[in-house]
Amino acid sequence: MLIDPLQLQALQNQDNHLLLCCLLRPVGVSAESINESDLIPSSQLFDIDDFSATDAPFPHTLLSASEFEIKARALGINNDSSIVVCDNIGIYSAPRVWFSLTLMGCNNVLLLNGGIPAWKASGYPITHDSVTASREGDFSAREQSDRVATKEDVFAAIGKADVRIIDVRGAARFYGQVPEPRAGVRSGHIPGSANIPYANFIRDGRFKPRSELEKLFQDAGCSVDKELIFSCGSGVTACIGYLAALLCGYKNIRVYDGSWAEWGAIESLPIEL
Question: Any stretches that span the bilayer, and where are they (predicted)?
Fold first, then answer.
């Protein structure tokens, strides 16, 4: 699932290899405080907003399989494409790109551990220009819908001993100590959920070693025989937790796509502080 800069450099000139970079800015972070110009050569830009449903009431809602297929083909993605995804933060939005692609049936997708900063630190060249696909791909979407949880699934999971809901927002948001950044969204968390802030999975822009990730899950009351449902603000950083769980050998895991943007906005849904 992960690839390092040396391995990516070796792939750069292979046929049917695609490098997709996401430049999504973290909530509350200004453009001046992060680098949005440096790119790895031969990168295509993957816009999470463009790959989100425009008619959905909540941000970053996954596209339908048919809509995703059209946009993926425009990026030149084929059924047999070898894809590497990265972002400019290190580990932030790239896991969402990885999740979206694999959810829709892309079978050969790796994530650059450490992203563009790790590539630069390794001494490899940087460009400021992205590329576009030279031809349309032939990708056919095959959605694995069992990897996505709805609000009904999450509500049904509350209080179940064999399910753990993991919220990866920061602790202050989880405990309702600060206002939510989105208007009309209540503060707090899903009853019975555990908090593992997504930053806890990461060190120096890379995923922590497996042993440290496993301890994070164990301390939150998780075990490999339980189902894990990941939530965040809008379904993006939940994918960091999802990928961390995969790296630890968890199999029965889902992402709550609506996440707190949906749950916190619906008054009839219960919350805890």
Answer: none
Catalytic residues: 232
pLDDT in tens, 242-254: 999 999 999 999 9
Any idea where the domains of the chain sit in the sequence? 2-143, 146-263
User: Which residue blocks in 104-258 are alpha helix, DSSP H?
Assistant: 115-121, 151-157, 171-174, 210-219, 238-247
Average pLDDT rounded to a whole number, residues 202-226:
97
Report yes or no: 56 and 50 within 8 Å, Cβ to Cβ: no
Residues 21 and 100: their CA atoms lie apart, in Å, by 14
Q: Which strands, in side-by-side order, build the sheet including 194-195?
A: 148-149, 253-256, 227-231, 163-167, 194-195
In terms of C-beta density within 10 A (0-12 exposed, 13-18 middle, 19 or more buried), how is residue 158 classed?
A: middle
**Please, what is the end-to-end C-alpha distance for the chain in angstroms?**
35
User: Residue ranges of the alpha helices (H) in the chain?
Assistant: 5-11, 65-74, 94-103, 115-121, 151-157, 171-174, 210-219, 238-247, 259-263
Q: Residue-wise over 163-190: b if at least 16 C-beta within 10 A, else e? A: bbbbbbbbeebbebeeebeeeebbbbbb
Residue range 2-143 in CATH 3.40.250.10: yes
Considering the segment(s) 146-263 as one domain, its CATH architecture is: 3-Layer(aba) Sandwich (3.40)
pTM of the model: 0.96
